[in-house]
Amino acid sequence: MVNVVIGILLILSFLFMVWYCMKGYNLMVGFFIMATVWTALVLIGNAIEPTVALKGKSIVDVLTFVYADGPAAYASSILVNIFFGAFFGRVLIDTGIAATLIRKVVELGGDRPRITMALLCIITSVIFMSLTGIGPVISIAVIVLPILFSLGIEAPVALFAFMGSIMAGIFANTVNFYQYRTMYAGFVKAAASYSYNDYFTIGIIGMIVGLIVVLTISNLTMKKTTHNWVVDAQPSGTAGPTNAPWWSWFAVILPVILLVAWKVPVIAGFIISAVYAMATTGKLRGSYKEVCRRFAKYFSDGTVDVAPMIGFLLALAMFNNAATYASPYFTAIIGGIVPTNHLVLAIVFAILAPLAFFRGPMNWVGSGAAIFSVVLASNPGIAVQFMYPLTAAVTIFPQHLDLTQSWVAWGMSYAKVSSSDYMKRSIPTGWICAAIMCLVIYVMYGAM
Asked: Span 269-278, mean pLDDT?
């Protein structure tokens, strides 16, 4: 009876967190509060009726696991990847490589708005296979969005297409893979050996699916364009922007190639790719002090780009560890209805995918850690190759189109797009992409 009461209180606090996310309040503080509330409820429940999860553990042990071990373990396994990924993103932007690729794509598309939009979405997805953080998003957005606007594409479609292309690229993003894999491994230790190379095929398929769905919905909801070409117009007598040389463009996908083809560690891949980008664009010229100052600036700027995300992820790590202790109480309420059949799991995840919006119960970086912990505990023998991509699909597609995503909120303000205009495209897209990928994952890995 105690387990059921505590479970109900946990669910109520869980619903509060969904409301909290929908209101747009600070997520770092929110997850710290949730970790504290759940830890307190778990300790109270265990004091009345001990659970296996807390057997032999003192209050200090529990507090250490939630507030110290959680962030420390997360920091050692993923935060350095995020920092170096943000550093590499700054290099691509400041060397002009990203801007050059976008300009060349526009030249290729010419005055055909739909083709140009498709090409811009494709190159944006490729860029965000490596880049991460709001800084790089804004830096690319202020180039891409004015181009789309000048082609006569209305703001809601332009913003949706751009954010959707980022979403597609994130599905194959190296840094994001390790972020979500680390969360998964917090409940299934064997997942620590699941590598990006193991995930790469499904990551690329997800990226392609995302692009196809985004471009389809963009074209179906696009009104007749009114051409108004003003991109890269320069005042008379001034020089246009300088393009990075074509051989420097390979830097965009070099980290992924190094990791997949030669298993070069992610951080080493970012450093090698950054040096290559700087060398091929003349950014290694100058005195030793100047070059060192340039490296330091890129790393400093990149760190600023991802600082809010780091704080959020450390608070989320606390919540995830608290959810480990809370799982017996969720199991007492919903454990009996959690599916164990691979096909049923895929179908249920596909149907419930919209619950990942607003950081909901199907979202790793929302309130989904507790639900996923129950699902994983109910399926102890399930293959990581099947279950991890399933959780990633219902997280990544909705999450990176969501109003609670920082760069989406910025984009809506920048493009002056209402939430209703944006959501009538984003919510169906996130659901369709996640549902398709759930079925693809079952076909590819359901027999494991």
From this structure: 95
- Calculate mean pLDDT across residues 268-281: 95
DSSP annotation of 357 reads G
Q: Which two tokens stand for residue 306?
A: 């991802």
Cα(82)–Cα(186) distance, integer angstroms: 18
pTM of the model: 0.85
Own/partner long-range contacts of 287-296 (Cβ < 8 Å, ≥24 apart): none
Cα-based angle 51, 53, 59 (whole degrees, multiple of 5): 85
96 φ/ψ sector (left φ>0, alpha ψ -120 to 50, else beta):
left
For 48-87, what is each residue's pLDDT tens digit? Answer: 999 888 988 999 999 999 999 988 877 766 667 788 888 9
Which DSSP symbol is given to 148?
H
218-235 residue pLDDT tens: 999 998 665 554 444 333
**DSSP character at residue 231:** T
Question: How does pLDDT run across 87-105, given as a tens digit for each residue?
Answer: 998 999 999 999 999 989 8
Residues 6+ apart with CB under 8 A from 298: 87, 90, 91, 94, 274
How many whole angstroms separate alpha carbon 188 and alpha carbon 327? 13
Contact 110, 79 (CB under 8 A): no
Backbone phi and psi for residue 223, each to the nearest 5 degrees, phi listed first:
-80, 170
DSSP code, position 79: I
Distance CA 308, CA 28 (A): 8
Q: Count of CB atoms within 10 A of residue 215's CB?
A: 19
